[in-house]
Specification:
CATH architecture: Roll
Number of domains: 1
Radius of gyration: 16 Å
Distance between the termini: 31 Å
Number of helices: 3
Structural class: alpha+beta
Helix content: 10-25%
Strand content: 35-45%
Protein name: Hydroxyphenylacetyl-CoA thioesterase PaaI
CATH superfamily: Hotdog Thioesterase
Keywords: Hydrolase
Largest sheet: 6 strands, antiparallel
Number of strands: 6
Order of helices and strands: HHEEHEEEE
InterPro entries: Acyl-CoA_thioesterase_PaaI, HotDog_dom_sf, PaaD, PAAI_dom, Thioestr_dom
Pfam families: 4HBT
CATH class: Alpha Beta
Shape: globular
Length: about 150
């Protein structure tokens, strides 16, 4: 439950079974069709050997926002939208204890393909947030896998 009293699991159906997002401590700030804003705080176990955010943690936050923006917050019984490719540019180091916010926005949707930009911001004490990373995701909408399909 967030500070706003909203259960993040109810805001977006893809979070119901997302154990990675739970472990990251992701909080949903805003979600609407083609957009999502989420945040997490950098904990010690999220740091690399240099004592800054592991790039995989920043990527995971951006990727979660991407998935939320790609898939309707109302859910779908027929299709899911997955990543077909992504690029990320790390611009600054993530500092322990700071809050990271990922802001995802659909740029283009044509047929089953889409392009999304995700900006990852880092809180800075007594200053404006700074851009930590820029992530561009390419999506593809596919039929929802059958519940009878074998699990890998």
């Amino acid at each position: 439950m967030s500070d706003t009293g909203i259960d993040a699991q109810l805001i977006h159906p893809i979070l119901r079974n997302d154990n990675a997002a739970k472990w990251l401590g992701i909080e949903v700030l805003k979600v609407s069709e083609g957009r999502a804003t989420i945040s997490m705080t950098l904990r010690p176990e999220m740091l690399n050997g240099f004592g800054i955010a592991h790039g995989g943690m920043i990527f995971a936050l951006a990727d979660t926002a991407f998935a939320m923006a790609c898939n309707s917050h109302l859910g779908s019984t027929d299709t899911i939208t997955v990543a077909s490719g992504v690029d990320i540019n790390f611009l600054k180091p993530g500092i322990p204890g700071r809050t990271l916010t990922a802001v995802a926005e659909r740029r283009q949707q044509t047929g089953r393909s889409g392009i999304y930009d995700i900006q990852v911001l880092q809180s800075v004490p007594e200053a404006d947030d700074e851009v930590l990373a820029e992530f561009r995701g390419r999506s593809r909408t596919i039929p929802k896998p059958s519940a009878a399909a074998p699990k890998l």
